[in-house]
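Entry:
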Amino acid sequence: MAKSSADDEELRRACEAAIEGTKQKIVMSIRVAKSRGVWGKTAKLGKGHMAKPRVLAISTKAKGQRTKAFLRVLKYSTGGVLEGFDNLRSQSVAPPQWTMRNIDDRNRLLLCILNICKDILGRLPKVVGKYTNNHYSERNLQDGPVAATVTEGDLKVTVEKELVSQAEEEDMEALLGTYVMGIGEAEAFSERLKRELQALEAANVHAILENEPLIDEVLQGLESATNCVEDMDEWLGIFNVKLRHMREDIESIETRNNKLEMQSVNNKALIEELDKLLERLRVPSEYAACLTGGPFDEARMLQNIEACEWLTGALRGLEVPNLDSSYANLRAVKEKRTELEKLKATFVRRASEFLKNYFASLVDFMISDKSYFSQRGQLKRPDHADLRYKCRTYARLLQHLKSLDRNCLGPLRNAYCSSLNLLLRREAREFANELRASTKASRNPTVWLEASTGSSQSVSNADTSTVSEAYAKMLTIFIPLLVDESSFFAHFMCFEVPALAPPGGVANGNKVGSNDDDANDDDLGIMDIDDNDSKTGKNSAELAALNESLHELLDGIQEDFCAVVDWAYKIDPLRCISMHGITERYISGQKADAAGFVRILLDELESRISMQFSRFVDEACHQIERNERNVRQVGVLSYIPRFATLATRMEQYIQGQSRDLVDQAYTKFVTIMFVTLEKIAAQDPKYADILLLENYAAFQNSLYDLANVVPTLAKFYHQASENYELSCTHHINTIIYYQFERLFQFAKRIEDLMYTITPEEIPFQLGLSKMDLRKVVKSSLSGKEFLDKYDSFAQLVAKIYPTEQIPSVGEMRDLLASM
């Protein structure tokens, strides 16, 4: 026997999924066939009378102490999934009929209903009607799910062909209840009933005998009806089998129709997607013509930009995730991607060749026109406004070339740098030449501390400020120009670096530029080309590439700046101080990363100026050292007062941060001066102290004013003062030792003998007697020579130690007389 659908766990799970969210529990589910009509009567089969597969499901829902039972009818959706309820229509003529597959399914369903009622109510409900065959008819079903609340009331099960309706049954009970039977003695009543029953039976028999012909006719009619019913039953069995086969065929047809319908929907969606893909793969003819052979004239740039934008979008549209990954490997997509790559390569090559030639032609045109450069008698400030205006026409094109092929920017940058480098070097060379030719200044001597010219050397006071002004003018004109060119190049060539300086910015306290045209030129208008490429963060790799390109752009221009520095040095070496300060001021103003080569240029100029000034300092030091080779030096050396004059002049040239440069020179000068002075003094020990005293005193006197305002010179001023005191002390000690030399030698002999003999024996030694002591003391402290030396010593002590008290010359004379 086939397994009952009531035991199908998969069916139960499908029913639970269909009512998910209702908090109901499936108690039983069973497959049935839905049809309409009254069983036992023939009916014409039509569309509305076709049997349909359904599922009857009994569920319960507990809510506190109250429990509800539900009888649900579920139908299959298009995909064969239980998805909802059957649309039950109330029809009194032909109610829906549910046909089970067998009697066992019918009995299990009714048994389940009775058990639920017994569990909830505690008793079985009253059942009115009969069960016929394996069909179950429910007359009280409404549209939608059948929900029955099982309470203390009766659960009524109504079946097909009710013998007595419930209302009729209730009327009969009421009628019988009102009937009063007058019954007295039971036996008398029983006898009475027997007699009446016998009379009725006799009457019935008499009536039957009288109606025998009618009964025969009825029996014949019953027999004929029985035969018809049997025939009908056979026909119904045959129709039932055919209907079952037809139902299976219809289900199969519905399944195929559902599949065909789904396939049709999928095909329609596929066609739409393919149409979209084909539209994406289509190359407009006007764009193809522009990319492969269109001109790059200024008038045609808008069409070129539109073609670039379309090509960029088309290439991105064929990349995942912009394109579904399932399309990426289609042959048509691969072929179209290859075609677009060829278009891109062709356009990039044509555009790169055009721009290279365009940059070279612009620069060649400017170089061939002498009016762009400085000429004799006329200094001309370089003007690149027209050059930048023409380049800006192709700025957006460069942006699109970068997005199409980043590698093409390298050769374009090199071509731009090579062309513009020629123009910048030519402008710098012509400007520097005319600047030197138009600047009039007398040469100042480079020999400041030479001894051969004598102490009366006169120092020229010629005004050489025009030399510093010329250098400052060179920087004022070209440093902002180079910064602007660096900024323009960085943005024009699509380097992802921070902006340099705001348009028309201020550098080093002076406005960059001297007229309104140049201020307007600083507004490059490049950052608005493509906002997507602007980045605030620094990219070290981009900065390295930019600085490398800027080196190629500006390399060689430093030669003309160095030529101006060398020219200024020849006129007045001390002007290196002011030029160093000017350069330092510009270096402190260059903080932008993209101006890296400009800082390198300024650093190189600063190094060149420092080297030239160091050359001057070294030469001056050699001049000081040459004093050592001269014949015996007497009095104040010549370089002492000359250094004071030199220091005064150097202080006048100091600007900004050149103090360190000057202080280093002071340190080197004074160190060499003091060392040379000590060497010269050592050549004549007899007069060394006098020479040192005079020169240290002269150094202090000549630098007294400057030492009050210059810390470095103040340090050397105190050093000279200390050396002066040491020289005085040494000179006094020398005088004392020279006068009392015999007395000190006598004392030295006594100290040596005290290691070997007792003090009492020393006066008896040869040369150490009391007579010898008197002679030594008298010879050391007598005579006019001692008093003269003592007078000189007293004057020296009074000068050096004015607060100290020593015996006067008169007191010393009286002391000697008493001896």
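The CA atoms of residues 61 and 67 lie 6 Å apart.
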